[in-house]
Structure to design on (262 residues):
């Protein structure tokens, strides 16, 4: 018993020394060792994953780029094919589901600059890594948009002002980020995370897609806007400001709830 515990603690200290991380003391005196030099796992992160070394940053960025490309390729691809609204919504939902499912283990499956910024604020990822993630997401989305020749660019519908579109995107992104934060607080599974994210995106795309395109993701809007140009590029700020404010609102609500529970 005691000899094994000492051996485990010695091994933990050695691992910390090699990886430059600190063990986290628990109430029972044990130590959870994280080997991730870039991010801090959520409180309820499974213990078995705490002892796994993370993928190199370049591999995680590749996963983020791939996931963003899947979202744009699948969702905007449905637009390019002339799918009905329910088909576009289903395509975006399934694309998000697939993107999260394939990249969760490699990068955490942010796939969205608003989510990455939120995780940076929460301390789950470092500044340099978050900047690399966002650049990768935008690159992946843009590459997919070039293949689709800019199809699926997000624009407010006729009669929807830029201000109203920003407000709609704010609330849509708030709902998505709230779901992400809720999953973060649980000992969540990869499949569960994928289903929640994909389901939220599909529902919001179905009901609000006709108004704003239901982007909720600056990278998803940036790629097609860069390729299509024109009005899509001029109104890109709507699809950056709205999701950014939605993520901030989700963080504020989280802080208020936690303060009330203390």
């Amino acid at each position: 018993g005691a000899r094994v515990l000492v051996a485990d603690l010695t091994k933990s200290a050695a691992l910390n020394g090699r990886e430059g991380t600190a063990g986290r003391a628990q109430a029972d005196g044990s130590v959870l060792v994280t080997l991730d030099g870039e991010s801090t796992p959520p409180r309820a992160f499974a213990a078995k994953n705490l002892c796994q070394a993370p993928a190199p940053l370049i591999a995680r960025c590749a996963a983020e780029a791939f996931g963003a490309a899947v979202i744009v390729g699948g969702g905007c691809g449905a637009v390019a094919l002339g799918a009905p609204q329910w088909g576009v919504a289903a395509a975006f939902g399934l694309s998000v589901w697939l993107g999260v499912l394939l990249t969760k283990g490699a990068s955490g499956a942010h796939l969205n600059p608003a989510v990455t910024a939120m995780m940076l604020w929460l301390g789950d990822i470092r500044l340099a890594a978050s900047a690399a993630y966002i650049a990768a997401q935008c690159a992946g989305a843009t590459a997919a948009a070039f293949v689709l020749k800019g199809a699926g660019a997000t624009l407010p519908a006729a009669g929807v002002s830029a201000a109203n579109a920003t407000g709609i995107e704010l609330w849509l992104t708030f709902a998505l980020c709230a779901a992400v934060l809720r999953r973060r607080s649980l000992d969540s599974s990869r499949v569960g995370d994928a289903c929640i994210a994909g389901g939220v995106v599909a529902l919001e795309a179905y009901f609000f897609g006709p108004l704003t395109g239901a982007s909720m993701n600056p990278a998803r809007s940036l790629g097609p806007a860069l390729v299509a140009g024109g009005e899509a590029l001029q109104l890109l700020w709507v699809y950056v400001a709205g999701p950014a404010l939605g993520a901030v609102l989700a963080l504020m609500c989280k802080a208020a709830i936690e303060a009330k529970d203390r």
